[in-house]
Structures are given as C-alpha cells and as structure tokens.
C-alpha cells in the first residue's frame, strides 16, 4: 500500500515539476567542455575554426566548428559521414572517436588527456603517441586549419 | 510489517549465479542478420583444422569470397546429455562443476577445449559461448550495434515488464537500463549517461564521499577486536559504507547506515537491498517456480524491490523540492533537469540494484590484498602523503595518485568482482572462426584472460607498476575490462572509481594493515570475493 501511495503522489506532483524544470537547463554536455567555456562562448560565438579529417580510406572531409566545440561536436553538428564515429556520444566509454594529431598540433592542445580519457585510449584501435579522443579535445582559435587523421576500425574491421 | 522480520546482515552464503553478465534472459532482440550469406555457405571447410584467429590467416580452399567459417555445431565444449543437457553438471557432488567455483570451471574448460567453448543444453537458457581470446572479445565489442544486449536476470525482467509495468511502462522508454534492451535501453541510456559518465561528474562528490569514508574509518577503528583486527563480519560494514556512499550519489541523502536504527527509512532500505541480494540468487538458480505462482521467496523479492523503488521515489521528490529552493548541483538534480523525475528515480533504482555489492566487494578484496603487501602499502602511503601534506582530501587530489589507481586496477585484473561480462548476439557473428548464431549468449571470460601469461607478462604476480604510464609490461587491453566496454559500459564507473580510490586512500593513510591468518580462497558469491572472514589487523599510523 505504501508503494501505491507513493506512486500516486509521485504522479500527481510530477507534471508541475516538469514544467518548472524544462528550460532551466537545456544543455547537458560534458562538464569540462561546457562549464569553463560557457562565459567565453558568447563572446567568441563567431570564432570559426576549420578542421580537416583525413579518413583511413583516403577521403578528406573539411568542416567548420566553433571555439569551445569538441571534435565530436564538429562531426555531429555537421553531420559528417564517418562511420561509427562517437558511438557513446562523448561519454568516454567507446574510443570510436579516436583521432591522431600531427606532433606539433598535439603539443599545442589546450588540455592534456585526463585519466578517463587515457584509460579509454588504451582501448583505441591503432593507438599512437599523438592519439586523442575527439570527444575530449576542444577547439581553440589557435587550432584553426587543424588536420587530424581518423584511423581505421571505428567499426568492425571485418564486416 | 514483514520487512522487520529480516536480519540486517548481508548473507554470508549467497548461492547465486547472478553476475551482470552470466545470467539469463528470455529470448528477445529480433533484428535482421546482416551477414545472411553465411548461412548459405557450406557448414564447414574440411581443409581447415585451425581455430582462433585463423580466419585472418588461412584462405578458404573452397571459397575465394572470404575466410572459411566453421559451423556452430563444430564448436568444442562439454557434450550435453540427452534430456539432461548440461545443467546436471552443476548439480552438487555429481556434476563436477560448482557454481561457487565457476572461476575454476572456466579455467579448466579453457585448458580442455581451447579458446572458445560451447555450453549448450542449459535448461531454460539460450546456448552460451565462452570466449577466452582477447582479440575476439575486442572484435565483438568493436562490432557492436546501436543497442548492445547484455543478458540479465529474468526475475527482474518480470518485475519491470510484467508485475510493475504500470510504472515502468507508463511513459515511453522509461524502464531503466538493467533488464532492458533494444530501443528502450538506448533511449534511456542516452538520457542518463551524459550526466553520470561525463568526465568530472564524479569529482564534485569528492568531499562528500570523503566524509563517508572518514565515517567508515572511524567505524572500523571502533569495532576492532582486542587483537586490533576487523571483526569477521567486516564485509557487512563495507556494505554499509557502499550503501551510504551510493545514497549520497544517487539520492542526495545521508542514509545514516552506520548508526541506523530499526524501523528507520535507511534501515528499511538496507533490509530491502539485503533481501534483494538474498533472493535474486535463489530465484535465478533454482527451478523458476515463480513463473507459475508467487512463491514466498518471490513475494519477499517483490516487496524488497517495491521498498527500494518507493524510498527512491520519495527522495527524488524531496530533491525536486530542494532543486527549486536552491540551485545546488548533484547527479540527481542534473538528471531531473535533463530528463525528468521519473528517469531520475528509475536510474537511482538501477544504481541501487547493481552499484552496492560490486563496489563493496571490490573494496574488501583490495584491502585484503593490500594487507598482505606491506611494501605496496608503503609506496601508497608515500604517494598519498606527498599529495595531501597533512591537509584533508580535496577534489582533484586522487588524480595526482597514479599508484593508488594502479593498485585498484591490478586487484580488479587478478580478482575481477564480475568475473565475466557478456553479450547476447543481435546478429550472426563470426567468433574464433565459427559462425555463431544470433541469440547466443557470448560470455567474455575476463577472469581467465586477465590472469593468463598470454595477455599479461608476470600475470600471476601483483604488479601495480604495469598500469603506470610507459610501463614495459605486456598487456592486452581487452583481456581485463572490469567495467565492460562501449555503449553499454558500467554506468556507475566514475562513481565506483571515486568511491574506491577515496576509501582506500583514507584506510592506507590511517592504518598499517596486516593479515595473520590462513590465506583466503576466492569464490563466486555472486561477486568474486574472498571466501571467509576478512580479519585485517589495523595498526594506527
Ligand atoms: C567496482 C565496482 C563496479 C564494477 C566492477 C562494475 C562492473 C560493471 C560491469 C562489468 C557492467 C557491465 C558493462 C558492460 O556490459 O559492458 C556494469 C554495468 C552497470 N553498472 Fe557497474 N560496476 C561497479 C559499480 C557500479 C556502481 C557504483 C554503479 C551505480 C552507481 C553501477 C551501475 C551500473 C549500471 C546501471 C550498469 C548497467 C549499464 C547498462 O546496461 O546500460 N556500477 N557494471
Ligand atoms: S565518443 Fe565514445 S569515447 Fe569519445
């Protein structure tokens, strides 16, 4: 009975809460990428960053992102055709967003890989010394014109 | 009320095969097989006698289209008896396979049959394939589709989808992640995983989780016996710590487990979680009478789940209230804001179902292992002291303690609390050169792989250094995956890691730990855990 009562009161109160809370917070991205940048973001809204993805099959895809976007954001927002990229939606559980940087670009990335990212990079296919997870790399103005390699096997290599 | 009748102790003897990966689920998942041409191929290539990764290396003589693939029938494994199948092998004394020692069973299957072993004819269960090849585990994981299917407990399936479908089915895609599959799972998971798994989601809890760990340290200091050893029900105390920590994370609440009193809400929750553990094993292992009529055990089980659900819901309500009054940040409030109160409540329920005994057994196991290794403790103590320099723990501190993290990884490599993980195939898949049909439960044998010399150098030795950057030890990343991998990876991983790191850090910082008894064997219970009283001598630092 206890269970029933709770359920009923829960159902009753729910809708008003929903109304209050819809719209309070709309973005739920990565804490790291959203929070620290949220203030600068408005000011830099128009700062575009050009990125080129060199795919393992020889294709070259050029796209534009904004300062503060992650590389995964760039792929998703531009609907880029990279098979299986970003399967876990940036929650650092899959390593399908693996990209390889040129050494000089790698060295000037704003942030080093954190522990979660390093653990997951360990599981990336074809790991290199200049590998990062695209969902954890945020674009800065300095990175305009960046080129990255998207290695093979974001999906089953054999299918 | 009936709930009072239950004892507040975690059962020492939990006979159960419940593990996140090995139990069973009614057949489901019906999508198209995208390698349909396989089934029209000849079942076997007689010219090929090799298994394992041979599909890469050996070109088929018969077909130039692709590598030779052998049929499901040819997969080696213990032969099922007519009528009895293979279930009899798990009957005590006669069968030779023991459920508590599935770890040993798996080791010997690997020795006898090779890297992929078929377990067919398990009564009322889909056929299983045990995989001991890390390369193949990697391939299956990388080939996952949008909604990987992990087999789960039928009794929970029944609770969510039949008995309480008025609640779990009231809104579309609102049944949670445990015992849920396909689109429903994917839709729900997307809503919660960004909040629960984003990097940094856990760090905001450092201080609060630290307070619970402090309370735990004080508690064990008090309950040491005259020899300064932890009492024989030490694991029960660790369970309380785990529940208290999870209450904080999932419900924004200090449940007060260390000083809980009969009849209080937290006590009811503790009892319910206890009962759930106790029952789930019984229900999954014995003949499933509950499918026909509600047995006493089943009624207890349902009552326990109802309690967990109702307590969860009431806390979600309170959190909503507070959420309006101030804008503090917490997982629960973030979930409510991102996906609504119902999603938040169901997430909390799921976390309670799988987040308590996993974490507590991992901590108990780690403390036990450390207590036998003074040198490792010394190194840990040095690392911790150099970061803390006498001040209390703050967010970001554990990130400066690589050796601490390495120790936990090493314990979970050698003694993974979940010894195997699994996927029910949603399409025909080639594994180890065999065509494995859709619907088969593929079990990745992480315990066996992670302890094999093939994938880890000096596999039988406790060497945390192997996990430090630029270590020269050989390792295969897919052999040891204590939290799983991919879109379906453990949803509580960030919290579990934080909780463990903090409590181990505080224990090492407070005590020198020693162990002066016979070594304990590990058993599957249903977590992989030391079998017997964990009596650790705690000497104040
Ligand atoms: C040492 C502690 C823990 C270990 C070893 C562990 C291990 C696992 C494993 C192996 C899986 C299956 C992953 C897969 O299929 O790839 C899993 C799933 C899950 N775990 Fe954990 N876990 C732990 C702690 C926790 C905690 C503390 C929570 C909650 C806060 C939690 C919540 C979950 C949930 C909800 C799932 C299901 C995810 C899904 O199916 O989408 N776990 N865990
Ligand atoms: S998208 Fe999965 S790890 Fe980056």
Automatic annotation (TrEMBL), chain A:
Residues 49-154 form the 2Fe-2S ferredoxin-type domain. Keywords: 2Fe-2S, Iron, Iron-sulfur, Metal-binding. SUPFAM superfamilies: 2Fe-2S ferredoxin-like (SSF54292). GO terms for cellular component: mitochondrion. Its cofactor is [2Fe-2S] cluster. It holds the Pfam family Fer2. It comes from the Eukaryota. One of its GO terms (molecular function) is 2 iron, 2 sulfur cluster binding. GO terms for biological process: P450-containing electron transport chain; positive regulation of ecdysteroid biosynthetic process; steroid biosynthetic process. PANTHER family: ADRENODOXIN-LIKE PROTEIN 2, MITOCHONDRIAL (PTHR23426:SF76), FERREDOXIN/ADRENODOXIN (PTHR23426). This is Adrenodoxin.
TrEMBL record, chain B:
It comes from the Eukaryota. Transmembrane segments: none annotated. Residues 31-40 have a biased composition (Polar residues). Its cofactor is heme. Keywords: Heme, Iron, Metal-binding, Monooxygenase, Oxidoreductase. SUPFAM superfamilies: Cytochrome P450. Residues 31-53 are annotated as: Disordered. Signal peptide: none annotated. Belongs to the cytochrome P450 family. This is Probable cytochrome P450 49a1. It comes from Vanessa tameamea.
């Amino acid at each position: 009975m206890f269970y029933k009562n709770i359920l009923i009161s829960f159902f009753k109160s729910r809708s008003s809460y929903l109304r209050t809370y819809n719209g309070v917070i709309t973005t739920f991205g990565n804490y790291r990428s959203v929070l620290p940048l949220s203030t600068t973001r408005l000011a830099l809204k128009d700062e575009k960053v050009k990125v080129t993805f060199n795919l393992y099959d020889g294709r070259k895809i050029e796209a534009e992102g904004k300062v503060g976007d992650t590389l995964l954001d760039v792929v998703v927002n531009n609907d880029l055709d990279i098979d299986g990229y970003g399967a876990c939606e940036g929650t650092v559980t899959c390593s399908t967003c693996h990209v390889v940087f040129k050494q000089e670009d790698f060295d000037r990335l704003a942030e080093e890989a954190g522990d979660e990212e390093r653990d997951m990079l360990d599981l990336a296919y074809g790991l290199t010394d200049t590998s990062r997870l695209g969902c954890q790399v945020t674009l800065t103005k300095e990175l305009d014109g960046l080129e990255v390699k998207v290695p093979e096997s974001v999906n089953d290599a054999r299918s | 009320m009936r709930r009072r009748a239950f004892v507040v102790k975690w059962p020492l003897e939990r006979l159960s095969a419940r593990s996140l990966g090995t139990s069973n689920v009614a057949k489901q998942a019906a999508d198209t097989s995208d390698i349909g041409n396989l089934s029209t191929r000849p079942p076997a290539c007689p010219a090929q006698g090799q298994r394992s990764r041979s599909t890469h290396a050996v070109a088929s003589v018969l077909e130039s289209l692709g590598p030779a693939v052998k049929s499901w029938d040819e997969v080696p494994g213990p032969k099922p008896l007519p009528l009895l199948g293979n279930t009899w092998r798990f009957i005590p004394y006669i069968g030779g396979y023991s459920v508590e020692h599935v770890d040993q069973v798996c080791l010997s299957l690997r020795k006898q049959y090779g890297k992929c072993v078929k377990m067919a004819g398990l009564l009322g269960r889909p056929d299983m394939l045990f995989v001991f090849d890390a390369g193949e585990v990697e391939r299956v994981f990388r080939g996952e589709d949008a909604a990987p299917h992990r087999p789960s407990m039928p009794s929970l399936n029944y609770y969510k989808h039949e008995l309480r479908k008025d609640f779990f089915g009231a809104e579309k895609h609102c049944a949670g992640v445990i015992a849920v599959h396909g689109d429903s799972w994917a839709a729900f998971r997307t809503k919660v995983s960004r909040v629960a798994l984003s990097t940094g989601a856990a760090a905001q809890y450092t201080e609060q989780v630290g307070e619970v760990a402090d309370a735990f340290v004080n508690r064990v200091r008090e309950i040491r016996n005259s020899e300064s050893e932890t009492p024989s029900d030490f694991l029960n105390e660790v369970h309380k710590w785990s529940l208290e920590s999870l209450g904080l994370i999932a419900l924004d609440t200090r449940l007060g487990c260390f000083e809980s009193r009969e009849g209080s809400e937290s006590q009811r929750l503790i009892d319910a979680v206890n009962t759930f553990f106790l029952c789930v094993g019984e229900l999954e292992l014995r003949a499933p009478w509950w499918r026909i009529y509600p047995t006493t055990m089943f009624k207890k089980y349902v009552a326990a789940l109802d309690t967990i659900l109702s307590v969860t819901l009431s806390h979600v309500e309170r959190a909503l209230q507070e959420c309006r009054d101030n804008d503090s940040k917490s997982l629960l409030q973030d979930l409510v804001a991102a996906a609504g109160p119902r999603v938040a409540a169901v997430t909390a329920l799921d976390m309670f179902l799988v987040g308590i005994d996993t974490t507590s057994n991992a901590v108990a196991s780690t403390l036990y292992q450390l207590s036998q290794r003074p040198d490792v403790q010394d190194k840990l103590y040095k690392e911790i002291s150099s970061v803390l320099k006498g001040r209390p723990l703050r967010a970001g501190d554990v990130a400066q303690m690589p050796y601490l993290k390495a120790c936990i990884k090493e314990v979970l490599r050698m003694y993974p609390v979940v010894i195997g993980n699994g996927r029910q195939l949603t399409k025909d898949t080639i594994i180890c050169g065999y065509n494995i049909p859709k619907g088969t439960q593929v079990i990745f044998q992480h315990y066996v792989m992670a302890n094999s010399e093939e994938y880890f150098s000096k596999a039988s030795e406790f060497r945390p250094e192997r996990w430090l950057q630029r270590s020269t030890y050989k390792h295969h990343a897919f052999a040891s995956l204590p939290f799983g991998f991919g879109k379906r990876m453990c949803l509580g991983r960030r919290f579990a890691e934080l909780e463990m790191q903090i409590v181990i850090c505080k224990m090492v910082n407070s005590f020198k730990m020693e162990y002066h008894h016979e070594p304990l064997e590990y058993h599957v219970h249903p977590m992989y855990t030391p079998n017997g009283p964990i009596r650790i001598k705690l000497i104040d630092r």
